Amino acid sequence: MYPLTKRLIDIILSFAAILLFWPIFIFIVILIKIDSKGPVFFKQKRLSKNKKEFFILKFRTMRTDTPKDMPTHMLQHPDMFITKIGKVLRKSSLDELPQIINILKGEMSIIGPRPALWNQFDLISERDRYGANSVYPGLTGWAQINGRDELPINIKAKLDGDYVKRLSLAFDIEIFFKTIFTVLKSEGIVEGVKERQNWF
Question: pLDDT tens, 170-181?
Answer without folding.
Answer: 999 999 999 988
